[in-house]
Amino acid sequence: MISGAPASGKGTQCAYIVEKYGLLHISTGDLLRAEVAAGTENGLKAKKYMTKGQLVPDDIVIQMVKDRLEEADSQGKGWLLDGFPRSSSQADALKALGIKPDVFIVLDVPEEVLIERVVGRRLDPLTGKIYHLKYAPPESEDIASRLTQRIDDTEDKAKVRLQSYAMNVGALSSIYADVMQKVDGNRPKLLVFEEIDRVLTDLQDKYERGLTAGEEKIEVPSGVIYENKDNWRGIPTRLNSIPHSREIREYFYDDVCRATKNAVEDGIHKLKVQITIPELNPEMDVYRIGTLLELMRELAFSFARDGKRVKVCVQGSMGAGIFAGMPLQLAGTRRMLEVMDWGEYESKGTFINIGSIGANEVTDNDDMFILMAPQNAVGNCIIDDLQAMVIAAGDRPVIIVNPRLKDLPSAAGVMQIRGREKRMEFAGSFFVCYNFRLLYLSGTQYPILGALRMAYPSQYELYKRVDLDSGKERYALLGTFTEEPTTEEITAAFDGRDPKKLSNTGGLWKILFGSI
């Protein structure tokens, strides 16, 4: 697969790749036109939308791509998919069909260069040849006098297209991270191809030696079986090493985003994300608010890239007068959200807005709401405002991330009794679409004994951490559960017993716990 912004030179590089490697070049635009012209079943479906000037739905385009890739010439020559998929939902659909590239090439060109390339383009209406006023000027004054500029080749319209591209390629980068190759496209076209050629040549060499992309040999203890990288759904290692590496954080951001999007696409609109890796566990002294802010941003981006208007919300001060205040964990976070980097393409203020928690924050312009760590404070409760917001949102998704909605006693040690049962019922009514927590011995936060993970629509997965002879570690899958396992069931699995045949005996593992 190859991806590049408008005017990145992607078409030129596709021509070079096809010429040298003989791959079948597939562009969805060309494919749509060919299917319509041939009057195929897919073509007739697509024509209904194209004649009305509407976008052809993803399921029709994906079916066309799937059918084309299954034809004999695609299977025999290999294929080059040009500019598709464009969104994470399209990529996920291809992945579900078993369609994955050996390499995902992204042409990287600075925005100012792309705009200069677009604005300077001119078309000869007689020959159809494309010129550029600076880089490829016309050969004569006669030709120059008849050149025209496409209506879309203006700076304002170029910026809109670049904004859309940047959001989409960000989503694809996480999906194809293990096979992605960024190539500097701000060079002469032959130098760009030289780098692409090296990437493809190296890939050919690996196949000739019998290795596939992403494959590696792993030495593991006898009796423990691990899946290869392409099928791996395990746990990143060294989670007690703080700060977490960028790779670890991005793994969890991607894991959360995928599960949440799956749940939203299935029509679930009251969702909860619970993730307590050390940097996101407020009970640990290594808690980092920046990691939570990053997670909120990535989750918002994952929906904004699909054209959703997202409101990211953090609660304001609760109480009145000298008793006003807010949880220490959230102090100053509204300002942090306002000033943090939301990308170069003005996504903040268009696709993404910042708000508070409450019914008055819900407007007709919002498609969904993501709430950062809503929680009660001493003597104050956020649940009433949260419930009012959910009611005002109607069927629009409301996603709460790492909520802490248990009642807290007042300064006098008195619990909030009135209405408590209904508040707790509402707090428990959110559907858990993602849950990850580490398992330790009670009263400790080291060493990590295992982990519990659930990413919708998968079941709960229980892992045991295994030390390898090389000094490294892996997480071995002990079992799966349709519902969140109890402490007793986790204990039984770690003891090697069937969790379905529990007794009242305890043992060492009886005191396993994970921060909730």
TrEMBL record:
The keyword Hydrolase does not apply. It holds the Pfam family ADK. It catalyses: AMP + ATP = 2 ADP. It is an enzyme of class 2 (transferase). Residues 249-491 form the DUF1995 domain. Keywords: ATP-binding, Chloroplast, Kinase, Nucleotide-binding, Plastid, Transferase. Transmembrane segments: none annotated. GO terms for cellular component: chloroplast. One of its GO terms (molecular function) is AMP kinase activity. It is found in: Plastid, Chloroplast. InterPro entries: Adenyl_kin_sub, Adenylat/UMP-CMP_kin, Adenylat_kinase_CS, ADK_active_lid_dom_sf, Chloroplast_ADK, DUF1995, P-loop_NTPase. HAMAP family: Adenylate_kinase_Adk. PANTHER family: ADENYLATE KINASE (PTHR35509:SF6), DOMAIN PROTEIN, PUTATIVE (DUF1995)-RELATED (PTHR35509). This is adenylate kinase. Belongs to the adenylate kinase family. Its EC number is 2.7.4.3. It comes from Ceratopteris richardii.
